[in-house]
Amino acid sequence: MGGSTGDGTTRAIHRVLIVDPDDQSRRTLHLMLDRRGLDVAAVPSTDAARRWLGDRACDLIVVDAPLVAGLVGGPPVIAVARGRDVDAGLRALEAGAADCVLGAPDETALALALHRVARAPVDGVRLAPARAANGAVAARLVGASSAMGHLRATIARVAPHRSTVLITGESGTGKELVARAIHDASPRAGRRFVAINCAAIPANLLESELFGHRKGAFTDAVRDKLGLFEDADGGTLFLDEVGELPLPLQVKLLRAIQESEIRPLGDTESIKIDVRVIAATLRDLAADVRTGAFREDLYYRLNVLPVAIPPLRERPDDVPALVAAFAARHRQRHGAAAAFSDDAVALLARQVWQGNVRELENTVERALVLADGATVDAAFLAEHLRPTRDGGSSTSPTVDEPPELSIKKATRALEIDLIRRALATTNGNRTTAARLLEISHRALLYKIKEYGL
Fold first, then answer.
1. Packing angle between helix 319-334 and helix 356-371, nearest 10 degrees?
2. Are residues 140 and 126 in the same domain?
3. 310, 345, 375: which is the final residue of a domain?
4. In angstroms, rounded to a whole number, what is the distance separating the alpha carbons of residues 89 and 103?
5. Hey, which residues does 387 pair with through a beta bridge?
6. Are residues 375 and 297 in the same domain?
7. Distance in angstroms (rounded) separating the CA atoms of residues 75 and 124
């Protein structure tokens, strides 16, 4: 789709991002734009939109009117003011929207707005074509080691196909980043990428999250809920920690993948879906199959295209590039001006990072904050972060360290050690590990994230 600008040139609109917190409105807009032959993605918030735009480019944003202010300054914006709220529409235009649609948008009103934006000049803004984002996420797979070269080649081979992908790797290796790279290099790029951590949601709620429900399906079902399979229709659904799915849900997931259809809770009819499933796990699913913890038929259905991510200890040559990338990212985030010296980078490269890339990034960010503008060298790391050969942190206090700080460090080290032991004992099963540690599942997930495990 395109139109003439004021200088006689034509601006093409190929990829559109929808930003709307309302599930039904988001889906309606998506269908309308789909029918116009556009590549469409949809997210529920401005934060999600910024993350999406950080990895990709688009030609136009269609956004719920109250959210406009947080999204101007890039691609042109069309605001949707529900309920024919003229004041909301005017405020959106004043905030920088290029056009506005009042009321529940119909296809004619939306088409006219698209046409007007395509023809209008955009002051000071150069629209990046959608194809400029092609491979943007893959470019964030930092590292020039042979292991990373093999991983990129694998992504390139599996991306064009619809078959399911099973990503394996230790915690912190970047499984979701690889899943996004596969999606963005696939024919579904620009369609929705929907992610869920199967370990982070209680088992009794997980079925509703995945497949949706109808009003009255259970006590608290006060309205229809769109499931993630339906929300990802036309795109990709990423199931992180798929090994944590309870057996009854494994049966339903198998049917959804094999038959390309789902049945929301409380519904009497199935819904056809077009979703590519990418799953990830740090567990040994083949071992779980042998013990009966994971269905053999689902394992083979998921493991059609396997992708293994190497741990950081197998690619130490990538550490300097990762340190540089993380330092650049967090300098901007914290307004920090510190730089890493060559001896500091060499020291970091010698560590065995149990938490892999996530732990390294947390260490880089911590160093930048503590350095407060000073150069981060090996002496600074030894004094403040005290990295050790096993990738942990020494609990030995510095000369002038207050006793309470020493106790806090020792407590942290003990917690990390206990969590690692519990995860190793349970073969990575976080639900069982939480029971061993006598803490809630949510508390364990929080600590895993906090400590970069």
1. 50
2. no
3. 310
4. 10
5. 393
6. no
7. 11
Tell me if 426 sits within 8 A of 435, measured CB to CB. no
pLDDT in tens, the chain (453 residues): 554 444 444 457 888 999 999 888 888 898 889 888 888 899 988 888 888 887 677 889 999 988 888 787 778 899 998 776 677 777 888 778 888 888 777 788 888 888 888 876 543 333 333 333 334 445 568 888 888 888 988 998 899 888 999 999 998 999 999 999 999 888 888 788 999 999 888 877 888 889 988 887 777 777 888 889 988 888 999 999 999 999 999 999 999 999 999 988 888 888 898 999 999 999 999 999 999 999 999 999 999 999 999 999 999 999 999 998 888 888 777 777 778 889 989 889 888 888 899 889 888 888 888 887 778 888 888 877 654 444 444 433 333 444 444 445 656 777 787 888 788 778 778 888 887 787 877 778 877 877 777
Q: Are residues 155 and 287 in the same domain?
A: yes
**Domain of 38?**
2-132
Statement to judge: residues 324 and 391 lie in one domain:
yes
Give dist(CA 237, CA 239) in Å, integer: 6
Domain count within the chain: 3
User: In the listed set 81, 108, 132, which residue is the last one of a domain according to the structure?
Assistant: 132
Whether residue 305 is found in the same domain as residue 201: yes
Kindly report the pTM of this predicted structure.
Answer: 0.59
